[in-house]
Amino acid sequence: MSNYLLFLPHLNALLNGTSTVLLLSGYAFIRQGRVRAHRACQISAVATSTLFLASYLTYHYSHGSTRFAGQGIARPFYFTILVTHTILAIAVVPLVLVTLVRAAKGDFGRHRRIARWTLPIWLYVSVTGVVVYLMLYQIYPVR
Known about the structure:
elongated, mainly alpha
């Protein structure tokens, strides 16, 4: 496997962490009424998450799956996080798209209603993506 591919899990964690910061910043901005800053953060979060998805798919297409090496209580903890992360990562894609389309159309009432669901799910996916990375590659790496 190429050396750049071995770097992709680290890049993926960085992209997930960046998405988390952008989402939280965007939320803070909209609470302050700073619409342009909110929009910039949310569009950047979408771009960052899109880069993550491309990187993730590239890595797993070339590398396959990575075995979790943890033992004991770490195993059910890891797999619970992984399963919920995976299910919600799939579910959040249409939520993000609908949320963006409603904002782009200026339908801010409906945008807010769906964003109340989209934001916490997207945050969970971003944060647990970093947790999965830490457990797979830092805390319990395959030796």
